Amino acid sequence: MFTSATRELPEVRPVPRHVAIIMDGNGRWAKKRFLPRVAGHVKGVETVREVVRACIEQGIEYLTLFAFSSENWRRPAEEVSRLMQLFVSALENEVKKLKRNGVRLKVIGDLTRFSPELQTLIRAAEAATADNTRLVLTIAANYGGRWDIVHAMNQLAAQKPEAAGQWTEADLEPRLAMSYAPEPDLFIRTGGEERISNFLLWQLAYSEFYFTETLWPAFDADALKEAIASYQRRERRFGRTSEQLDGKETSQ
Ligand code: IPE
Ligand code: IPE
Ligand code: MG
């Protein structure tokens, strides 16, 4: 089990252990170039490759990428279908490389809405990389933070009905989709919007937020370094005062 920011004081390291990213701005990147939106998504996959490499170099242990939200089904059918095709081809093309580079792939979200072909590919990719330990790469697909919490609650109701009314955070956490990872230290959203869009609602409780205007297809290793530099200037207090952190006053 990992430290919960609300129940214990997490260890703060100079390099974030877990970075979670909303990869936003693909459509605008393409539009600026008079290209179809899907061209932005294609370029976005290249960015994923570069950022995975950069995370390994920086010593980041967990990288979580929001690829498709539970609300993205509202997009035009043509775009949704192209995104699904891209997901399939990325899985087909990248898994060997991930395996070679020590990356463990995990996919979180309600996968039941995906085609059986895609679900099989996802399970196979997870199985093929299950023993890797260098970086855990999580793709959030048909993921929603509210879905995650309700899903965990329903499991709890089925598994511990006798404790209803006394359930605690510690009961819920192991049933959340990312129970295999520590909470994100750093949350990044590219593309200029400053919102969570139903990403990891529970897990971001004490994460540091970093927003950049840079559109996802233009985000690169240097942009990641900038985000980490910003993170390193933050004071993570978890409810305490600055004086307590400086050691001038003791904590409870
Ligand atoms: C993010 O880029 C990718 C997905 C949501 C799949 P967008 O497609 O949202 O790009 P913008 O926000 O329209 O520029
Ligand atoms: C959030 O991006 C989801 C992903 C990046 C996958 P959107 O571009 O869909 O978010 P909203 O709808 O603008 O908030
Ligand atoms: Mg967007």
What does this structure look like?
40% of the residues lie in helices and 14% in strands. α4 links the parallel β3 and β4. The mean pLDDT is 96. The protein has one domain (18-147, 183-234): Undecaprenyl pyrophosphate synthetase. It has helices at residues 26-32, 37-58, 77-100, 116-128, 145-159, 169-172, 221-232, 242-246; strands at residues 18-22, 62-69, 103-108, 135-143, 186-189, 208-211. α1 packs across α2, α2 (37-58) packs parallel to α3 and α3 packs parallel to α4. The chain contains eight helices and six strands; from the N terminus they run βααβαβαβααββαα. The chain has 252 residues and is α/β, with parallel strands linked by helices. The chain has a six-stranded parallel beta sheet, sandwiched between helices. The site of magnesium ion (MG) has 2 residues, from loops.
Please summarize what this structure is.
The protein is of the alpha/beta class and 252 residues long. The chain has helices at residues 26-32, 37-58, 77-100, 116-128, 145-159, 169-172, 221-232, 242-246, and strands at residues 18-22, 62-69, 103-108, 135-143, 186-189, 208-211.
